[in-house]
Amino acid sequence: MTAEEIKRVLVVGAGTMGGQIALQCAIHGLDVALYDVSAGALAAGMGRVRGYASHLTAQGRTTTAVLDHIQPTTDLAAAAATADLVSESVPEDPALKGRVLAELHALCPPRTIFTTNTSTLLPSMFAAATGRPERFCALHFHLPVWDANVADVMAHPGTDPAVVETVTAFARRIGQIPIVVGREQSGYVFNTMLNALLGAALELAAGGVAPPADVDRAWMGIMHTPVGPFGIMDAIGLDTVWKITDYWAGVSDDPRLRANADFLRGYLDVGRLGQKAGGGFYDYPEPAYRHPAFLPGEEL
Ligand SMILES: NC(=O)c1ccc[n+]([C@@H]2O[C@H](COP(=O)([O-])OP(=O)(O)OC[C@H]3O[C@@H](n4cnc5c(N)ncnc54)[C@H](O)[C@@H]3O)[C@@H](O)[C@H]2O)c1
After folding, report:
1. Which of 133, 172, 176, 250 is the most buried (most CB within 10 A)?
2. How many angstroms does the Cα of residue 274 sit away from the middle of ligand 1?
3. 217 and 150 inside one domain
4. Are residue 131 and residue 241 in the same domain, yes or no?
5. Structural domain that includes position 118
């Protein structure tokens, strides 16, 4: 199958990433089914998608008619039956991803290409579970998908090279700059660098060296960026950052990663999951780091 032959995309998981991927595909002329196991999560996800569509319409980058090409659904069998490409964005857990893709293997036609949007896992960890390892690789997006438009394409040793080619051309077709990763690497290219930054920032705060606002102030003041590592984590979702940190703390037995996971857990325990929950390290929709007084460290 060539990238031009891909007409229908099934996005699995309507959370932070799934909704953005669905909208990006629709903006580039594809018909999209957006599936979630939870009707509540699907409704919330579609609410976010409508918000993004209005925002991009106001910027003249699309029209709200694009929403007609996104079909929210909780009927996996019906959505799978016509899917040419699956983009999986369920939580970062290899066993869950394997289970979800195995279920899809039974429901999708043999031609369907499976992709995972995993942040840090390796496709080979659950390639066998997909039932079609040769038609499976990672296609990993960055947030927000329409502006941070770089996508990693990463095969596992059993991926058919023709599938990598199709997925790479598909990434271009939906407005992404594809980076084909030479061999499996947790975190691909950009996230390998980003994870080192976020891990160091968490270590500074968890170890009492500097509070989150000062860590962000240092990064923003020197790098002249509009956001620092803690603001970035709020955008990603602290539950997702915790899940990744907790998983790798378990795998590596690294006490620094465990301390970072425990530090994040403190925020989750009080419902501060980040921007999507209205609060994380900062309060939203007007986080302190966007205030002109933040960088000079004046009283807000
Ligand atoms: N948040 C980011 O910045 C980001 C960036 C790139 C990649 N990722 C990766 O994308 C994936 C999803 O992350 P997210 O931030 O969107 O998570 P999220 O928690 O916001 O969304 C996950 C969604 O999956 C749904 N879900 C759970 N089990 C499911 C199942 N069995 N079938 C279908 N849906 C199910 C949940 O209801 C939820 O809506 C993860 O692998 C993450 O590492 C995240």
Report:
1. 176
2. 14
3. no
4. no
5. 3-180
Q: Which residues line ligand 1 (CB under 6 A)?
A: 12-18, 36-38, 41, 45, 89-92, 100, 117-119, 141, 143, 236-237, 240
What's residue 169's pLDDT?
Answer: 98
Residue 300, pLDDT score: 79
Query: Are 196 and 174 in the same domain?
Result: no
Handedness of CA 241, 246, 248, 253 (dihedral sign): positive
- In order, the DSSP letters of 136-185 are EEEEE--SSTTTS-EEEEE--TTS-HHHHHHHHHHHHHTT-EEEE-SS--
Q: pTM here?
A: 0.87
For 231, which DSSP code? H
How far is the C-alpha of 93 from the C-alpha of 79, rounded, in Å? 23
Asked which of 125, 146, 180 is the last residue of a domain, the reply is 180
Instruction: Give the separation between CA 86 and CA 59, rounded to whole angstroms.
Output: 29
How does pLDDT run across 233-265, given as a tens digit for each residue?
999 999 999 999 999 899 999 999 999 999 999
Tokens of 35: 């599936």
Residue 217 falls within a domain, yes or no?
A: yes
